[in-house]
Amino acid sequence: MRLGIDKPDRKRSIAWPVTHVLALAPLDVWIRMVKRTGGVNPAYWARFAFILITSFVGTICTVHERLVLAVVRRLKFVDDPRVEHDAGAIVILGYYRSGTTHLQNLMSCDTRFVTPRWYQCLAGQGFLIGWSILRFVLVPFLGSTRPQDAVGFGPDWPGEDDFALCTWGGCSSIPGRFVWPSDWEDWKRWHSLEGLSDKELNRWRSLMAMFVWKITRKRRNRTKIVLLKTPSHTSRVKELDRLFKGNVKFVHLVRTPTAVIDSNVRLHHSLKDHLLEDGVEVQQVRDRIVEEYAYTESKCASELSAIDSDRWTRIRYQDLRGDAIGTLEQVYSALGMEIDLRAKDSIQQYLGQLGVYQSEKEDIELGEMSETEQQNSQEMIQRYELDKEPAASVHVDSIEDPVARVWRGVIAMSLLALVCISVWLGIVYSVHATWDSMHLRLIPAVWICGAVVGIGTKKASGVGSPSLGLMAAILTVLIVLITAFPVSIINYNFASTEGYSTQDWIYHNSKYAYQGLSSVASLIFIALGAMTAYRHASASGVEAPGTRQAGIERIGS
After folding, report:
1. Domains of the chain (ranges plus CATH)?
2. Dihedral sign computed on CA atoms, order 374, 380, 382, 386
3. In this structure, are strands 225-229 and 89-93 parallel, antiparallel, or unpaired?
4. Per residue of the chain (557 residues), what is the pLDDT tens digit?
5. I need a labelling partner for 137 at 20 to 30 A (CA). Which of 107, 372, 532, 536 fits?
6. Which ranges constitute the DSSP H helices of 114-197?
7. How far apart are CA 239 and CA 233, in angstroms?
8. Angle CA(549)–CA(554)–CA(555) in degrees, nearest 5?
C-alpha cells in the first residue's frame, strides 16, 4: 500500500531529469527495483527515462566484468561468504549526518588504509576496467560538493560501500530513503539486515565480501587496512564482525541528537529531486528518522559491548571538529595504532585546504519534535556524555589557494591538442590503410581528448581556473573541427580525380566533414568532451584526501 503519495488535491508537475544517486546501477537492478515497488508514476517518466540512459552506460561499461566475476562469486562468495584480508578492517560507525564522512576523509589521508572511492561505489558491479572507464565518464556530471552540504565530492573522494551494494544488487535501504519513500518499511530491512530472507541475507554477505575483495585486488592494497564507512553499518556490528571473522575494529562517532535529526530532514529535502514518486510529509520523514536513529544507536551500543573493548572506541563529533589531530590520536591509540608523521602531515594539509567548514542552511520546514524524540535525545545525550564540554579547539592554519600559472597551462593545452590531432589522424590513416573499406571518423575520441587536455592543463598550471577551463573546452572543440576535414580526405578524398576543380574538392570533403560533425551523437560527444576539459582544467579547491593530487600515493583501487 502506498501511503502519503496519492494526493488528488495537488496537481502533479513533470519531474525533470537529474544526475541520480543510483544512475549507474545496471538495467537489471533497476528493473527488479521497479518491479518490487509497483512501477513509476507517469509524472516521473521523464526522470526515469534519463536514469535508464545513464543505467545503460553503467551496464555496458561493466557487463563484461559482471559476467566473469559471476563465476568468481559463485565459487568463492556464495557458501558462507567471509572476508579473507590479513590486514583486517576498520569500520566507521555513526548514524546519517553524524560526521562520519569527515572522519572517513581524515583517516583516508593515511596511506595505510584503502577505502572505496565514489567511482567504485556508484557502480559497485564494476571492477578494474569498468571502474576506470566510469571514473572517466563521471567527471562531467558530478559536482565538486555534495548536494546536501559543502563537503567535497567527486569520483576520487572516499565513498560509502552501501551505494556499491545498492547499485550492484539492490541490497540497501537507499531506495526507500531517497527514491520510493512510500516503500520505506520494505527497504529499511536492509538497514539493519533484520527481517531479510536467508537468500537476501546471503546476497548481502556475498556482495559485501566480494566488494572488499575487489578494492583490495591491486598489489599495493593487499597489505593495507580496509577502511569502510556507511551509516547503516552502525546497526550491523555483529554481522560485520562475523563477515570479517573477528579481524575488524570499529570507531563509533556520536553527535548531538537534535543536530543529527534536523540534518537528516534537510538531507531528505536536498535529495527530493531524486524521488520517483511524490514525497511523504515532513513530519512523517522526521518521525521515521527518530525511530530508526534510536533503534540504530541502541543496537550499536548493545553489539559493541559484546566484543572485546580493544577492538572499538567511541568519539564525539564536537571533539573531532575542535581538535581533529588530537581526537584521531586517541582513536589510533585505542585501536592499537599510531599516527605516523607522514599521515599527520597529510591530515594537516587536508585540514589546511579545508579551512573553516560552513554550510548554507536553507530555511525549510523541519517538522515538530515529539515527546518520543525528546526522550530518546535525552537518553543519548546522557549515554554518550554529549552535554560535556568539547575538547579545546586547536587552530589549523589555512593553506592559501595556489595561483594558476596560466601561461604554462596554455602552452600545455596547445601541445596536448597537437598530440591529440596527430594521434587521431594517425589512427584513422592506419586503419584505412590496413582495411580500405573502413571509414572511421572517431568522433567519440573527442571525449578522451577533452580529458587529456583538461588534466594536462591543470597539472601544468598547478591548479585549475575558470579561464583555463573555458580555453580547454574551446580547444577541445577545435580539435574535432580541425580533424574533421583531414579525416574526410583520408577516408574518401572526394572529387580528387581528373575533371574536378579545387573548389569541388573542398566542397565535397567539407560536406562529408559537416555530416559527421552535425549528427546528434557527434554533438553529444563534442559537448561531453568540452565539459570534461572544462571540469578538469577549472578544478580548484580541496583535493580528494589520499589522492596523488594531494601529494601522496593514491589509496583507492
Report:
1. 85-353+369-384 (3.40.50.300), 406-540 (no CATH)
2. negative
3. parallel
4. 333 333 333 445 788 888 899 999 999 999 999 999 888 989 999 999 999 998 998 999 999 999 999 999 888 898 889 999 999 999 999 999 999 999 999 999 999 999 999 999 999 999 999 998 888 777 777 766 666 556 667 888 999 999 999 999 999 999 999 999 999 999 999 999 999 999 999 999 999 999 999 999 998 999 999 999 999 999 999 999 999 999 999 999 999 999 999 999 999 999 999 999 999 999 999 999 999 999 999 999 999 999 999 999 999 999 999 999 999 999 999 999 999 899 998 998 888 877 655 555 678 999 999 999 999 999 999 999 999 988 788 877 766 666 778 899 999 999 999 999 999 999 999 999 999 888 899 999 999 999 999 989 988 998 888 999 999 999 999 999 999 999 999 999 998 888 899 999 999 999 999 999 999 999 989 998 999 999 889 887 677 787 754 433 333 33
5. 107
6. 118-121, 128-138, 161-169, 174-178, 184-187, 189-192
7. 9
8. 145
| Cα–Cα distance list, 75 to 162, 239, 504 (Å) | 23, 22, 64
**Burial (0-12, 13-18, 19+ Cβ within 10 Å), 111:** middle
Render 380-427 in DSSP notation, one character per residue: HHHHHTTTSPPPPP---PPPPPPPP-HHHHHHHHHHHHHHHHHHHHHH
Q: What pTM does this model have? A: 0.86
Please state, in angstroms and as integers, the Cα–Cα distance from residue 119 to each residue in 315, 339, 530, following that order.
Answer: 29, 28, 21
Where is 114: in which H helix or E strand?
A: strand 113-114
For the chain, the residue count is: 557
At 4, the amino acid letter reads G
For 262, phi then psi, to 5°, come to -60, -40
Contact 222, 89 (CB under 8 A): no
